[in-house]
Design brief:
The structure holds 3 protein chains of 3 kinds. Chain A is an alpha/beta fold. Chain A contains 6 helices and 14 strands. In chain A, the strands form 4 sheets. Chain A has a 6-stranded parallel β-sheet. Chain A has a 4-stranded mixed β-sheet with strand order 10-7-8-11. The radius of gyration of chain A is 22 Å and the shape is globular. Chain B has a 4-stranded parallel β-sheet with strand order 2-1-3-4, with helices on both faces. In chain B, strands 6-5-7-8 form a 4-stranded parallel β-sheet, with helices on both faces. Chain B is of the alpha/beta class. By secondary structure, chain C is an alpha/beta fold. Chain C folds into 3 domains: 1-42 and 317-396, no CATH class; 44-299, Rossmann fold; 407-469, no CATH class. Chain C has helices spanning 5-18, 20-41, 47-63, 65-78, 89-102, 114-118, 121-127, 137-144, 161-171, 181-198, 224-228, 251-262, 298-302, 318-322, 324-329, 340-351, 353-356, 358-361, 368-372, 379-392, 398-412, 414-433, 445-450, 461-469, and strands spanning 82-86, 107-110, 131-134, 201-204, 208-210, 215-220, 234-240, 244-245, 270-274, 288-294. In chain C, helix 2 (20-41) runs antiparallel to helix 12. Chain C is elongated. The relative contact order of chain C is 0.12. The model of chain C has no long low-confidence stretch (mean pLDDT 95). Classes of the chains: A alpha/beta, B alpha/beta, C alpha/beta. At the A-C interface, strand 1, helix 1, helix 5, strand 11 and strand 12 of A face helix 2, helix 3, helix 4, strand 1 and helix 5 of C.
Chain lengths: 227, 242, 472
């Protein structure tokens, strides 16, 4: 399919003659075959098989400085939401607009204004954000969120990010999670996805780990047992 | 099992550290080998090769191949020189008329500890050296010839020898051929860090399979008037049990 | 009087090599890295298999670079994003600068991108009157100090907390009461938060360009990259053309390997995938998305079938961390965007072999870099090839060419070699006997500056062999 040598930016087209020249140079450069072929010894297992994903997920959460609380049912989940929210300073929270979160959150946050994602981006001063997740990944103790989980800012703007999900969303490893993303074409209907493996952090000063950089200092996962 | 070995003596060992070669001969004879020394050998070509002068290194390599092409097995008390022949001669002489011979010689050339353990299948060469010794893993032997255990296996079989592990034993000592004079400040800084590591072990001796590393380290240790001295693996193994 | 890059390097290297405080700081930082890296490696059952897999992925990507770039471009454009191909840094800076000016951008927030350093994007934007904030904590610090990043992953590793506290006191207009790292991070967070929410444009790099999904992948720990790509209304990605990978699933091994090699983590905290501007129905996100694909010498390197694999680099920094030269002279001494072994190999291709060939010689060729590279680039052998290339291009000193010419003649004739060796030893013995070691007459004076003189035996091995060792 022929590409035009222009780039559209709003009203004005930008000429991009270099595009053709770069492609030509690439094709020219690739006419010679590289000298050393890559060897791949087959059938070698790179990552150890995960026998107990839930156990592994919980261990990784500890290592990632994330909170992971297992709850038996919705009542217990609401209870835990309340507990986390009570521990936070006064202020509004932002939540992904989803029926399950509407049910769980409203009783858990008396006296707090909840701004829902259907109303727009999270306010800068939010004390916490609450979202669902696409999946939970045992191998790395990660949550997979997409734009559908309340947008991009929902998982990074506030000092505390609370994620709610069920154990049926747990997958063993990154390979499985990425394969699902591909098969379900999630990135066609979402402009953004993120694998989050802990609270924000930096080790830029003396290689000393500081928890809480520009993103949340606290990441709390509420994982309800699936029925 | 070949009973005769041809000795490949690096040029700077021949000229500046002859005892390393003398001790190599002692060890080989003690374990039952006949040693021949082809006197027409000069240099494997590594100094020119490593500095990028491949056109100058090439005839030198061809000369080496002619000298050694009929040897059953070639033994060399230097990891870097053995590496030159084994790993780089096939590439350097790829277009030479001596290419076939070069590949043959390369396949039959061994560093000393490699020869003792892997070809002669001997760990205990009847040596005695009752001293505290630390080991420096020279880069070529370690990363080009993949000799991680062999020198240590030989050292552990030396009677009375106390082997002390040094921190960062596999960090480069800083010699690097012409690097040592082209970038003398960096080379010396690296050498001094190595000397610090050696000092921390409290060892009397530091040993290695590469005489060029040892020459550089001895220079650094000498300048600091450090108590530790360098000694080549061959010279330790040559110390006979009474 | 202006210096060549080589002269400047020698001078800086001399200074840093003697700086024991600096050496101790770097040793300490690298020890932290070593410990974390080792721990990180235990999470990967077969590290060698992981390296081979990553090498294979990048090999496939680079060997079909045009195909995968076009696949990536098509998907980005289909989602309403823009892709601009820049032949060099000037074109890239012009595109971003014009875009910013046309859109009325006054403030830019930037997450870490070595390519933007390479093309000097920030100075170009500032010249156009645009304020640029580096938001990666380490980059923010060196930006305030007006210096280049010290390391491609940890830009401020050469500084201690006291220096950073003093810097913040001076530059941030906030009360800085402590040099505790968490306190300092909080101060930076307060300052940069204003920028995140005021900026009209966020600029990021990309760790990977995923061809089949048509998304960019960015790995960060701090969340600054997340904010740069979520809050401002325009998101611009500046990336090298070589960052392509074929499939989304390739990230299953590349993400853990990048994190393990870079910092010892199992995976970077925020492993983000972005495919375009916000879609209808999404709560937030930029309205415009631009990807600037930068060539700047990479397509030329592609044509070098011996060194093409240098384009496989995933910029993890592991080679810098293990390099004993880096550990002794530090990142600033190199004077290039990319320091360390990868920088020494890559820079002559990007910036010219004549000016930067010295970097390929400033190495003992120990091979530690090659042994840790997660995509198995044969780094130290490429340094050797650069030396060969420089010699063949006639770019070496005439005195050195003469010397090796003479050396060659000697080595081809055993009697010249033996006589030459004997004469040299004899002459040096006389010289040193007269107390002239280290003097201008001493040909070994550079060696002797830092070392006690090498031994000068009266008999070579071959002389002894001939005399009494010959019989078995």
């Amino acid at each position: 399919m022929a590409q035009t040598e222009n780039v559209q930016t709003g009203t004005a087209k930008v000429d991009n003659p270099s595009r053709g020249r770069i492609l030509e140079r690439i094709r020219g450069g690739l006419r010679t075959v590289a000298l050393k072929p890559a060897q791949m010894r087959s059938n070698r297992v790179i990552f150890a098989t995960i026998q107990n994903p839930l156990e592994r997920f919980r261990q990784e959460c500890v290592a990632n400085l994330m909170e992971c609380t297992l709850t038996a049912d919705s009542a217990a989940s609401t209870c835990h939401f309340a507990k986390v929210l009570q521990s936070l300073p006064e202020g509004d929270i932002f939540a992904q607009d989803d029926p399950s979160l509407r049910r769980l959150l409203e009783p858990a946050a008396p006296g707090r204004a909840i701004r829902w994602s259907s109303q727009g981006a999270p306010p800068e001063a939010s004390q916490a954000t609450v979202t669902l997740a696409e999946a939970f990944i045992a191998q790395t103790g990660s949550i997979l969120v997409t734009a559908a989980c309340g947008g991009r800012g929902a998982s990074v703007i506030a000092p505390c990010h609370i994620v709610y999900g069920t154990t049926s969303q747990l997958v063993a490893d990154l390979a499985t999670a990425l394969s699902h993303l591909s098969q379900q074409r999630t990135l066609e209907s979402n402009s953004f996805a993120c694998v989050i493996s802990g609270s924000s952090r930096t080790a830029d000063i003396e290689k000393i780990l500081v928890q809480g950089a520009h993103g949340p200092r606290r990441l709390s996962v509420i994982l309800q047992t699936a029925t | 099992m070949p009973q005769k070995v041809s000795l490949f003596v690096p040029c700077f060992v021949d000229q500046l550290l002859p005892e390393v070669a003398v001790d190599t001969v002692k060890v080989l004879r003690r374990i039952g080998y006949t040693v021949e020394f082809p006197e027409d050998q000069t240099c494997c070509g590594q100094p020119a090769f490593n500095t990028g002068y491949w056109n100058e290194a090439r005839p030198c390599a061809e000369h080496f191949v002619r000298v050694f092409k009929n040897a059953e097995v070639v033994v060399c008390p230097s990891g870097s020189c053995a590496t030159m022949v084994r790993n780089f001669y096939p590439e350097l002489l790829a277009s030479s008329s001596l290419r076939g011979d070069a590949i043959g010689v390369a396949g039959r050339t061994f560093e000393l500890s490699e020869f003792l353990v892997k070809v002669a299948a001997v760990y205990d060469v009847g040596a005695s050296f009752p001293h505290r010794v630390t080991y420096h893993a020279s880069c070529h032997g370690l990363r080009e010839l993949h000799l991680r255990e062999e020198p240590l296996q030989l050292l552990r079989a030396v009677r009375g020898l106390t082997l002390i592990e040094m921190a960062r034993f596999d960090e480069c000592c800083g010699f690097g051929g012409t690097f040592a004079t082209k970038f003398a400040d960096i080379s010396a800084a690296m050498g001094n860090s190595k000397a610090d590591s050696i000092g921390t072990t409290g060892a009397e001796f530091v040993t290695a399979i590469d005489p060029s590393c040892l020459m550089h380290m001895q220079g650094i240790l000498g300048k600091r008037q450090a108590p530790a001295r360098t000694i080549h693996l061959a010279s330790i193994l040559a110390q006979e049990r009474p | 009087m202006s210096q060549t890059a080589a002269q400047r390097f020698l001078q800086d290297a001399a200074e840093k090599s003697a700086d024991l405080v600096h050496r101790e700081i770097i040793r300490h930082r690298m020890e932290s890295y070593d410990a974390a890296h080792l721990k990180g490696r235990t999470r990967i059952q077969d590290w060698e298999a992981a390296r081979e897999k990553c090498q294979k992925i990048k090999r496939e990507a680079i060997d079909h670079l045009d195909h995968y770039l076009l696949q990536f471009e098509e998907k980005i454009i289909a989602r309403g994003g823009h892709v601009f191909w820049a032949a060099n840094g000037e074109e890239a800076c012009e595109y971003v600068g014009n875009l910013a000016t046309q859109r009325g951008v006054r403030t830019v927030v930037k997450s870490k991108s070595m390519v933007t350093e390479e093309i000097h994007l920030s100075p170009a934007l500032e010249k156009a009157g645009i304020k640029v904030w580096e938001t990666d904590f380490g980059e923010f610090i060196v930006q305030l100090r007006n210096e280049a990043p010290y390391h491609i992953v940890t830009p401020a590793m050469h500084l201690n907390r006291g220096q950073i506290a003093a810097l913040f006191r001076e530059k941030l207009g906030q009360e800085i009461e402590s040099d505790n790292p968490a306190y300092l991070m909080a101060a930076a967070r307060r300052k940069l938060r204003q920028a995140f929410f005021a900026a009209e444009m966020g600029i990021s790099g990309a760790n990977f360009l995923v061809a089949d999904a048509g998304v960019i992948a960015i790995s960060t720990n701090e969340g600054n990259g997340r904010l740069c790509t979520s809050v401002p209304r325009i998101h611009v990605v500046v990336t090298g053309i070589e960052k392509v990978i074929p499939r989304l699933e390739d990230l299953a091994v590349l993400w853990p390997v990048l994190a393990t090699s870079g910092t010892g983590q199992g995976i970077t905290t925020y492993s983000t995938l972005i495919g375009g501007p916000r879609r209808p129905g999404e709560a937030d996100g930029p309205e415009e998305f631009h990807v600037v694909l930068v060539d700047n010498g990479r397509s030329r390197l592609l044509a070098d079938d011996e060194q093409r694999e240098v384009l496989h680099c995933i910029r993890c920094g592991a080679c810098l961390n293990i390099c004993p030269v880096f550990r002794h002279v530090g990142g600033h001494t190199y004077g290039t965007t990319y320091p360390g072994p990868i920088g020494s190999v890559l820079t002559p291709h990007l910036n010219g072999i004549k000016e930067f060939k010295h970097l390929s010689y400033a190495s003992s060729l120990c091979g530690a870099c090659t042994s840790v590279c997660p995509v198995k680039i044969d780094l130290h052998h490429h340094l050797l090839q650069n030396r060969r290339n420089a010699t063949e291009a006639g770019a070496t000193k005439p005195s050195e060419r003469l010397m090796f010419g003479a050396w060659r003649r000697a080595m081809l004739h055993p009697w010249i070699y033996a006589a030459g060796g004997w004469s040299m030893r004899k002459a040096l013995r006389i010289l040193y006997g007269l107390g002239l070691a280290g003097s201008i007459l001493d040909p070994m004076r550079v060696w002797n500056r830092y070392r006690s003189p090498a031994p000068l035996p009266s008999k070579s091995f071959r002389a002894r062999w001939r005399r009494d060792l010959g019989s078995n």
